Each structure stands twice: as structure tokens, then as C-alpha cells.
TrEMBL record:
Belongs to the heat shock protein 70 family. Residues 610-637 form a coiled coil. Pfam families: HSP70. This is Chaperone protein DnaK.
Length: 830
């Protein structure tokens, strides 16, 4: 058959993957060769180079970590540490591993349906960075999927839950997957839904719960009863035993969704003396609930942030749609439903959370038309003199009377007509629709809800006789459809001074396009072996460049230019992002009058090393300690709230554990780098909150110092000016306006300077400062004579002479002297 729509959807998951096919107004999962709905995202390569994907590879990963790989989705878009399969001496990048999973799913389709598909919709987390989306595109190409639009996972889930919904409402998609978390606020209205807002975390998922069970429960229990030293993720000698504990933790965690406890039994482990032992442990649901609390807090905080930014409260939402295996956990559901510590919104778990994303992707795929070149089968050839029709329509939409246009080609069309006949009982007919002189026509159809409506296209010639036409059918389904997806992270470029030039802001509907004029920070010499126009591409929201994720670079190489490009030259950058969040960039350099296509290299920096992470973590913990002290000193509740969030989300403990694990685990290193960015941004937020109480304290100290100056040296007029200035300071404090308060503080300083200038105190201060700088003056002998004159003038309170001496001494300095401190008299006790 020749497909006109994609029809197949793939959930390419961290832990498991699945593929589904549209079936009427729903979708059915295509089981793998083992009869399972999902395929573990695991790859194994044996010593002969034979590659296996799925359950066998997953089970083997628990005993042979060197020749298996799991959870590689977390490193999509990164560079620097490909997986080495040691037995075969073969390395594979994350996108190559993902491609093998996609190939396995394609084979499952071929086995089940006989089709060799070359097109499918592939889902990605909404929080995925552009570099990870680009890596997913490359994985699809490697797997033989020549046309593979990307769809955000929350959108797919919302489609699966509400494709046939006729209500107008707000929903929250709560997608807690194996490695990522997404929270998306969705508005359904008039048969269309829009993602209003999104928050997510690429490194928050079920695997973190597995590791918490291993590190907090299983390792302490095992080492207490058996002589196994230094059992930790960061110890390369213990990777085999750690892998077995991780696999057992994952299986037991799943079992706890249906039971109060789960027995873990691992046989034939070796202690330090080489003796075999068996490890048995009774994992209790209550202990796991305690461990998952910080992860739930993180997810709830992201949901609340998404709601607050959307100006919505729990009462504005109809339901929460549960997605992902961890949402089967009873405790997680209880916490989410709790109005105090959770969300307090009704939960909808009517769909299978493990396969809902794949099924939603298939529904979306049924609305995506294929060009003939992208079809999963070659087009049927048209015989000479036969007729063909080029149709313009949407295969899916909320309208029960969809619009259809088209143009008939292949032969004479004078007096010809088309008619659409539905497969309903009784059939609905459009009536004969005459063609225009060039073979064009337009009409509306009538479609029923709740099923896929197939229409036969009847083509009649000028005599009224029916003629064959290709294609001769059209299928349309009434259902909720997605509008323009939003960009989930702002995209910008890093500039000098740790600044960011934001190009396309978060929430912008896709596709999007932005043009911006930049200037080079370095020169470029034609043909040189070194030097490059290199502009970092950032993804995030922070005003400081280094707090955002660096996802790639804009590059122009010296070998690409015809002549030198001096520093400060213009670069006219155009950035285009499509609905799949795939990026095309063009850089036009006016001085060369040349445009560079594909100038963007979308790959994140190499995975950080253990040493880099340890150094960075130590520095941030010192900064956090300083912020804690200041928060206590100023008793600032806003800063304390930020610190409480850091503690509730267990950020520091997470980082400590992952820094150690990063010695041998690249996934831990990648996750640790992201958590460090979270910690840095949170500390920045606390420091920003503390800036206000620091400023208030500083201004109050200035005010007190000015009072003392006016009290000691001022007159009645100065006292009136001080009273007015104090009122202005208090008004700025009440308004919580930092800029205004700084302005009022400067006015206070100017009042002090005025009083001291009128009394001569300022001239005395200036002379004291200039005396200390005589060694820097141009003519030391003349300077010394001036100093002697100044001392006599100061002793006799000859202020006029002292001002003249100060002016002469100032001219002796190569640079202007610093302004006198108006409050030094207070500190020095003058």
C-alpha cells in the first residue's frame, strides 16, 4: 500500500522504547518479537562484533558493563566519551546506540505488519536541548528513517488522553520518565490544544530513584554483613557488583507499585577474600517512599512554577495526566493529589503510562502527510492518459466539515467532475464538483466523530462515465489537534563579559526565525592554521552566560574565508527553528560578502571530568555556606526560601554522590554537570534576594553617618535637608525599589560632601589623601614644598590656601586622585 500519512509513532525512551500504529481514532502498540509492549533501550556487542538490542542486552548489562550500554539517551548531543565495547574494541556514540534501538523497532513492525517503514514520528522530552534533538534526528537517519518529525512527549501524551475530547479545559501533563521529567500546562479549546507553558528537567527520572535505593539502602546493608570494601559507584573495581545492585533495585522498585515489600536476592557475589556469598534484602515500600521524596519535591516545584508563570492555580485545572513508569507508584500519586504538599488537582491515570507517549505519537503521525518520496512504499505509476489528483487537506482536525482542495492532471479536464463518497452507512455524497479549466476544485466534506472517515474519490469525464484516478481515497479523522508547539528554552549566543544576546525567547511558537547583527571578538586571518569565528550557542534563561547550557557553536573556519576578517567585523546571523526544534543557521559576513550555510555546530561540550566537577562542587559549596551565613545575618525570608528549596531537593547531596560516580560513569558526570548548574543558579537567586537587605543595611549606615556629620558640622538648613533626605530614603525602602534607593543613598553622600565642603572639612580630608600620594607625583621636590604649605594652612584653618594647595598637588598626579570619603571623619573620629 502507499501511505499518505506517517501513521507510526515512536517513544524513544531512556529505559524503554515503544512503537505504535494508528488504528481508527486510537493507536495500538506493536509488540516486539518477545511479545512485549516495550523494548529496553539497551545495546550489547559481543567479542565477534554481533550487536543485540533489548531484553537480552538489558539483562547482560547487570553482569557485563564493559560490553553493554544502557540509559544513553541522557548523553544525546554530547561529545567526548563514546561507549567502548571492549570485547569487540568498538566505540559507539549515543546517537548510534539510539539508532540501533530504532532499527529494532523497525524490525518489529516488519515482523508484525510486513511493512519496511521509512517514516515515523519520534518523541523527545520537552526539556530536551537543541543539541539532543539534533542528535535524535541523526539517529533516525542512521536507522533508515528518512522522514522523522520530532514531537514533544507531553504533547504526545495529551493527544493520547484527549484526542476525542470535546471539552474546553486546562490540563497538566505530569511526565516522569526513566531519565527525564516534563511538566506541561495544556489548554484544550474548540478542538485544538495549545501548550501554554512548560518546565522540565532532562536529568530527573526513575533512574535516580534506582540509584538512591542502591546507595542509601542496598550498599549499606551489603557491606554491613559482608567483607566488601569501598563499594561505591566511583570505584572502577566494583562496577560489576554495582550494576547487579542497580538492576535488582529497578526490578524491586517496579514490584513495589503492587506490593508492600519486594525480596532482592543476588547470588554468587564475591567478597574481598574471593569467597562467594548470596545477598538477600527485603526492600520495603516505606523506605523507598522516603528516598523518592526529594525527587517528588523537585517535580512538584517545576509544576508549580509552570502554573504560576501561566497565572493559573490548582482550581483552574481540570486534571493532571500521568505519564511514565514512576507514576505507577502509589506514594507519588498520593503526594500529587495532596493540596498542601502536592498539586491538589484530580489525577487521570486512565491510560497506560508506559505506552501512552508512543500511542499519542502515532495519533499525531496520522495527521502528518507524506510526500511521495517519503512514503513507505513507492507510488503507483500513472499510465499515459490516466488521471491523478493532487489533494490539499488536513488529514485530522476538529471540524466535522473539513475543507478539501485539489487539482486533477493527466488528461483533458473540460466537463470533468469529482465526487466524494463516504464509507458511512448510509453513504454521504458530496455531489458532482465540476473542475475549473485547469482542473482545480474545492469543497467541504462531512465527517463523523469517533472513527476514521474514508472517502472514495469518483472521477467522471465529460460524458459522465467514471474514470480511474490516483489516489482514489482520502481519510479524515475528527479529533483534537495540536497548534504551534512552543520553544521550551530560550536560545541565545554568549558575548564578552559573560553576557547573553537572546535570539529566540522561551515560549515562542514554532517555527520561528530571528536575525541579529553580531561583531567578532577576534580577528581571522585567511588560511591560518589557528583562529576561528566561534560564537557559543546557549540554551536557558539565566542572564549570566555561564549559567546556561552551552549546546553548540557558530563557527567560521580560517580555511573558509577569502581574505582577512579584522576584529569587530559584522556577522549577520539568521537562526531558524522548525516544529521539531531542529535548527538551521546562516552567517553572512558583509566584509567578505559571503554567506556561510550550516554555520552552527550543535553539540554540547565534552562530558566534564571528575576533577573538574569536584573542583566546581567545592567552590559552589563554599559560596552556599557564605550565602547561608548572610541569610541568617540579615534574617531575609526570601533568601531562606531559596535555601530551603535547595535542601528539599537534595541538590548538594546529589552532587556529592554524582561527583564520586563520575570517576567511572559518564552518565553521572553529565547529570552532575546539570545539577551543578541548578545549584549555581539557585545560589545566584539567593544572592540576588540578599542584595536588597545588604543595600538597606548599607544605606542605613550611610544615613547614620550623615546624621553625625550634620550634627557635628551642619547648620539648621542642613538639618532640614537631612530630614527631607531621610524621608526619601524610607519611601524608597517601602517601595522596595533598589535603583531608587541607590539614588537616595547618593543624595545622602552629596549632602555630607556639601556640609563638609562648607565647613572646610572636605579640604582637610583631600589634603590627607594627597599627602599619602606624594611618591607618585611628577615633581617630588615641588610636591614636598606644597605639602609643607598645606600643613601650615591646615594647622591655621586657612581653608582657602589649603584648597589651592590641593589643586596644585592634584595636577602633579598622572591620574586624577580618588574622591574623598565623606564618612572618614566619622571613622577616624575627627
Amino acid at each position: 500500500m502507499t501511505r499518505t500519512t506517517i501513521d507510526f509513532g515512536i517513544d524513544l525512551g531512556t529505559t524503554n522504547s515503544a512503537i505504535a500504529k494508528i488504528q481508527g481514532v486510537g493507536a495500538e502498540i506493536i509488540k516486539n518479537n518477545a511479545g512485549s509492549d516495550t523494548t529496553p533501550s539497551a545495546v550489547m556487542v559481543d567479542r565477534r562484533g554481533r550487536l543485540s538490542v533489548g531484553r537480552a542486552a538489558k539483562e547482560r548489562s547487570e553482569v557485563d558493563t564493559e560490553n553493554t550500554c544502557v540509559e544513553f539517551k541522557l548523553r544525546m548531543g554530547t561529545t567526548g566519551q563514546p561507549k567502548l565495547f571492549s570485547a569487540a574494541n568498538r566505540t559507539m556514540e549515543p546517537e548510534e546506540l539510539s539508532a540501533e534501538v530504532l532499527k529494532s523497532l523497525r524490525r518489529d513492525v516488519a515482523m508484525a505488519t510486513g511493512e519496511d517503514i521509512t517514516s515515523a514520528v519520534i518523541t523527545v522530552p520537552a526539556a530536551f536541548e537543541l543539541s539532543a534533538c539534533d542528535a535524535t534526528r541523526r539517529a533516525a537517519e542512521l536507522a533508515g528513517l528518512t522522514y522523522a518529525p520530532l514531537l514533544q512527549e507531553p504533547t504526545a501524551a495529551a493527544l493520547a488522553y484527549g484526542f476525542q475530547s470535546e471539552e474546553d479545559a486546562f490540563w497538566l501533563v505530569y511526565d516522569f520518565g526513566g531519565g527525564t521529567f516534563d511538566a506541561a500546562v495544556v489548554n484544550v479549546r474548540d478542538g485544538e490544544f495549545t501548550v501554554v507553558n512548560h518546565r522540565g528537567d532532562n536529568f530527573l527520572g526513575g533512574k535516580l530513584i534506582d540509584w538512591a535505593i542502591v546507595e542509601k539502602l542496598l550498599i549499606p546493608a551489603l557491606t554491613q554483613d559482608h567483607r566488601v570494601g569501598d563499594l561505591r559507584r566511583g570505584n572502577e573495581r566494583r562496577t560489576g557488583m554495582i550494576a547487579k545492585l542497580k538492576g535488582a533495585a529497578e526490578s524491586a522498585k517496579i514490584e513495589l507499585s503492587r506490593a508492600e515489600s519486594a525480596a532482592i536476592v543476588l547470588e554468587d557475589l564475591l567478597d574481598d577474600a574471593g569467597r562467594e556469598f548470596d545477598f538477600e534484602y527485603d526492600l520495603r515500600r516505606a523506605d523507598v517512599e522516603r528516598l523518592i521524596e526529594p525527587f517528588i519535591v523537585r517535580s512538584v516545584n517545576l509544576c508549580r512554577k509552570a502554573l504560576t508563570e501561566s497565572r493559573l492555580g490548582p482550581g483552574d485545572l481540570q486534571k493532571v495526566l500521568l505519564v511514565g513508569g514512576p507514576t505507577l507508584t502509589p506514594y507519588l500519586r498520593e503526594r500529587l493529589a495532596d493540596p498542601k504538599d502536592g498539586l491538589g488537582i484530580p489525577l487521570d491515570h486512565s491510560q497506560d503510562p508506559m505506552t501512552v507517549v508512543a500511542r499519542g505519537a502515532a495519533i499525531f503521525a496520522a495527521g502528518q502527510r507524506l510526500d511521495a518520496a517519503a512514503s513507505s512504499a513507492p507510488p503507483v505509476p500513472i499510465a499515459p492518459g490516466a488521471y491523478a489528483v493532487e489533494l490539499e487537506y488536513k488529514p485530522m482536525g476538529p471540524d466535522t466539515e473539513p475543507f478539501v482542495g485539489g487539482k486533477v492532471t493527466g488528461g483533458p479536464v473540460a466537463g470533468c467532475a469529482v465526487e466524494f463518497v463516504s464509507d458511512a452507512l448510509p453513504p454521504w455524497r458530496s455531489g458532482r464538483i465540476p473542475l475549473t479549466g485547469d482542473g482545480a476544485f474545492t469543497t467541504t466534506l462531512w465527517a463523523e466523530r469517533g472513527r476514521a472517515n474514508t472517502f472514495t474519490i469518483e472521477f467522471s469525464d465529460a460524458t459522465g462515465g467514471l474514470r480511474d484516478i490516483t489516489p482514489n481515497t482520502l481519510t479524515y479523522t475528527v479529533g483534537v489537534v495540536d497548534t504551534q508547539p512552543p520553544l521550551t528554552h530560550s536560545i541565545g549566543v554568549g558575548l564578552a563579559g559573560n553576557e547573553v544576546e537572546w535570539l529566540i525567547r522561551r515560549g515562542t511558537p514554532l517555527p520561528a526565525r530571528r536575525r541579529v547583527l553580531l561583531r567578532t571578538a577576534v580577528g581571522l586571518s585567511r588560511g591560518a592554521s589557528e583562529g576561528m569565528i566561534r560564537i557559543p550557542v546557549l540554551e536557558g534563561e539565566h542572564h549570566r552566560a555561564d549559567r546556561n547550557r552551552r549546546i553548540g557553536r557558530l563557527e567560521v573556519d580560517p580555511q573558509q574565508v577569502r581574505r582577512d576578517v579584522p576584529e569587530g567585523s559584522e556577522v549577520d546571523l539568521t537562526l531558524v527553528i522548525d516544529e521539531s526544534r531542529l535548527v538551521v543557521a546562516r552567517a553572512y559576513v558583509p566584509i567578505l560578502d559571503e554567506e556561510f550555510e550550516h554555520a552552527i555546530n550543535l553539540q554540547t561540550e565534552s562530558v566534564p571530568t571528575h576533577e573538574e566537577l569536584a573542583r566546581d562542587a567545592a567552590a559552589e559549596k563554599q559560596r552556599l555556606a557564605a550565602v547561608r551565613r548572610q541569610a541568617d545575618e540579615y534574617r531575609d525570608e526570601r533568601a531562606r526560601e531559596v535555601l530551603a528549596r535547595i535542601d528539599a531537593e537534595n541538590i548538594v547531596a546529589d552532587i556529592d554522590a554524582m561527583v564520586d560516580a563520575a570517576r567511572v560513569d559518564p552518565d553521572a558526570a553529565t547529570t552532575c554537570g546539570k545539577r551543578l548548574l541548578d545549584l549555581k543558579a539557585a545560589i545566584d537567586e539567593a544572592e540576588d534576594e540578599l542584595e536588597w537587605p545588604r543595600l538597606v543595611q548599607e544605606v542605613r549606615e550611610i544615613t547614620e553617618a550623615v546624621r553625625q556629620v550634620v550634627r557635628n558640622s551642619g547648620g539648621p538648613n542642613h538639618a532640614r535637608m537631612l530630614a527631607s533626605a531621610e524621608e526619601a530614603v524610607e519611601a524608597a525602602i517601602t517601595a522596595h525599589d533598589a535603583d531608587l534607593l541607590r539614588q537616595r543613598a547618593e543624595e545622602m553622600r552629596q549632602l555630607a560632601l556639601r556640609v563638609m565642603d562648607e565647613t572646610g572639612e572636605l579640604a582637610l580630608l583631600a589634603f590627607d589623601e594627597l599627602q599619602s600620594l606624594t611618591g607618585e607625583m611628577n615633581d617630588p621636590q615641588e610636591a614636598q614644598q606644597l605639602v609643607e604649605t598645606g600643613r601650615r594652612a591646615a594647622a591655621g584653618r586657612d581653608i582657602a590656601t589649603l584648597r589651592h594647595v590641593n589643586a596644585m598637588l592634584s595636577r602633579q598626579l598622572p591620574t586624577p586622585p580618588p574622591a574623598p570619603d565623606p564618612f572618614s571623619t566619622v571613622r577616624r573620629g575627627r
